[in-house]
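> example.struct
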């Protein structure tokens, strides 16, 4: 008896992840050829910095840094896409665990059924995850966005696209602000007003998102 064919979403995700990996390796090889293998160590340091905090993108304004803010933003976005791909590839194995995996699979199944019953929620979920990844607050980011995307019923490819969109918008904003502020970025980044504004934006967006979700549910009743 032949094994069942993998779901279409899984096949598309695997092809997309393979494309991301192939393109990334091609860029790494080209970078090593142009700048020498020793330059890969500087790239690794920059990647670790932006992975720990996207505020490191502002470090592109420092004269001793090889990468400018836009290049650091691209590195940060690529890492977020890698992280999301890795999590999405590993979730299938996690779902095979006896207890936690079964709970995750059941939660995803219920969310998927809700998405099919209320099609408008799928579009809202996509942009909700993108906003979650975009906002510069603790607990957000590619990891949280990927896990929440799967829990609310988005497909693997939809979750990856949502995380990529949110992360892309975030790093573009960081890089643009870094270029605009120049050397004054450090003082502004430590300003608590920035974090207060971020929290207020999160509250406002959460209220708007809940209002849209409630409207979609009421349309179906």
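> example.seq
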């Amino acid at each position: 008896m032949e094994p069942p064919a993998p779901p279409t979403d899984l096949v598309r995700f695997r092809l997309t992840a393979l494309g991301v990996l192939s393109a990334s390796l091609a860029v790494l090889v080209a970078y090593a050829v142009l700048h020498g293998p020793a330059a890969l160590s500087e790239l690794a340091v920059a990647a670790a910095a932006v992975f720990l905090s996207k505020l490191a993108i502002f470090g592109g304004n420092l004269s001793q840094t090889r990468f400018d803010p836009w290049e650091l933003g691209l590195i940060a976005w690529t890492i977020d896409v890698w992280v999301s791909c890795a999590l999405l590839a590993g979730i299938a194995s996690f779902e095979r665990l006896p207890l936690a995996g079964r709970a995750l699979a059941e939660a995803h199944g219920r969310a998927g059924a809700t998405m099919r019953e209320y099609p408008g929620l799928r579009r809202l979920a996509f942009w909700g995850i993108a906003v979650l990844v975009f906002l510069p607050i603790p607990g957000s980011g590619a990891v949280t966005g990927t896990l929440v995307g799967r829990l609310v019923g988005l497909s693997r490819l939809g979750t990856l696209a949502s995380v990529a969109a949110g992360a892309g918008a975030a790093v573009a904003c960081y890089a643009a602000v870094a270029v605009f502020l120049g050397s004054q970025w450090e003082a502004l980044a430590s300003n608590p007003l920035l974090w207060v504004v971020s929290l207020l934006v999160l509250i406002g967006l959460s209220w708007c998102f809940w209002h849209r979700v409630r409207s979609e549910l009421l349309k179906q009743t």
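> remarks
The chain has nine helices and no strands.
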